Amino acid sequence: MALVQSNDLVVYEALKIRNLVKNRKLAKSISDASWYQFTEWLNYFAKIYRIVCIAVPPHFTTQDCSVCSTRVQKSLSTRTHQCPNCKTVLDRDHNAAINILKKRFSAVLGFPPRPR
């Protein structure tokens, strides 16, 4: 509830839990996190408090560079995004968060944001 109340906009990845739990190494952690239940509550409280809550497709949010859109392949254990094209260095999650916010434009307006 505090997450929703303290923001004007909430944007999150519409993850396919069924596909994620196919990975034997991560299945228990993903199930323990209760992502589905979290998103249900998130949407419920957003509706109550009239906060915009948008789910965006999760495709390549951690791999695409948030500055130049170059796709940088990395393993799950790689925690730093380092773009060879524009030399941007960010925490992997910070890079993904920027990409998720950018994707909200295409989810709401129906077209991708302009590149910088």
TrEMBL record:
What lineage, starting at the top, does this entry show? Bacteria, Bacillati, Cyanobacteriota, Cyanophyceae, Oscillatoriophycideae
By what name is this protein known? Transposase, IS605 OrfB
Domain of life of the organism encoding this protein: Bacteria
Give the record's keywords alphabetically: DNA-binding
Q: Which GO molecular function annotations are given, in alphabetical order?
A: DNA binding
Q: Where is the Cas12f1-like TNB domain?
A: 35-100
